[in-house]
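Exam prep: given the inputs below (a chain plus zinc ion), describe the expected output before reading on.
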Amino acid sequence: MIQDQIAEMERRALAELQATSDLVALDEWRIKYLGKKGELTGFLRGMGGLSPVERPLVGQAVNTAKNILETAVAERTERLKSAALEVTLTRDKVDVTLPGRPVQVGHVHVITKVFREIIEAFTAMGFQVAEGPEVELDYYNFQQLNIPPGHPARSMHDTFYFSESVLLRTHTSPNQIRVMEKQKPPVRIIVPGKCYRSEATDATHEFMFMQFEGLAVDRDITLADLRGTLAAFARRMFGEERKVRFRCDYFPYVEPGVDLSIDCLICQGVGCRACKYSGWLEILGAGMVHPQVLRNVDIDPQKYSGFAFGMGPERIAMLKYSIDDIRQFYRNDLRFLRQFA
Ligand SMILES: [Zn+2]
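Solution:
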């Protein structure tokens, strides 16, 4: 009888179901017995050849078997799923008592740090920050700063040229001109930025370096203002007890020109290798803006005067932290950089 065959298939199916061990095997089982071409459907397909009396009986038997198998497979699926979850939970168990992995926290680069300190020192005295292009015109980098073609000062600037008139700026001073072209006195700015010189690198020279340009133009600005401003800066950066010294120096765009030194941080002025036994460390160059530079931007040197200064934050950082090689700053050696966290 067909009912017997159905009952036999049901037993076989249930036995196989109990033997399934994972969800893949379950799927195979489902296709074999309950699928469109599965064994159960096979019985329905054969019903055409049955007598009208047998037909409903067989149909009922198929339905009953179908219900039993579907219920069984649903239960089995649940059980296998929770077993799989159990395995995952045990395998991936997290020991919450373990100490955490340390998270590496970054910090600003030592040059950025000194950079910000310098900006703070001058903005506190009323200077504003201005910026300018790194790719500069010869006109701004040299000519307007009183360094015409053929001027000997050009040989001190080993310049990267793009063409006869376009170059990588060798200092931040061209921004004096750029600012004064647009802004009439009073002017109080500092210009931080990268500069480039085509130099062989050594312990004190890099082909790329940072520079700070400062400029103050107004009525009655004198060398005493320059001296007071820069001495205040030097003491803020290197300590209130620092002595400062100004000496004559030469830059084509200032008259007179000076350089500023502080008494040696290492030997306190007695004399050591760092200060070349002079007791003094030079930190920047400065001077009173040359009258010709003022005239170049239509500012009357009879009415106005100003001072300008330029310094390298690398040099300031080297002195402040006793670093003996400028190339350390841009080598990206973490052992070096982490000291300034
Ligand atoms: Zn010294």
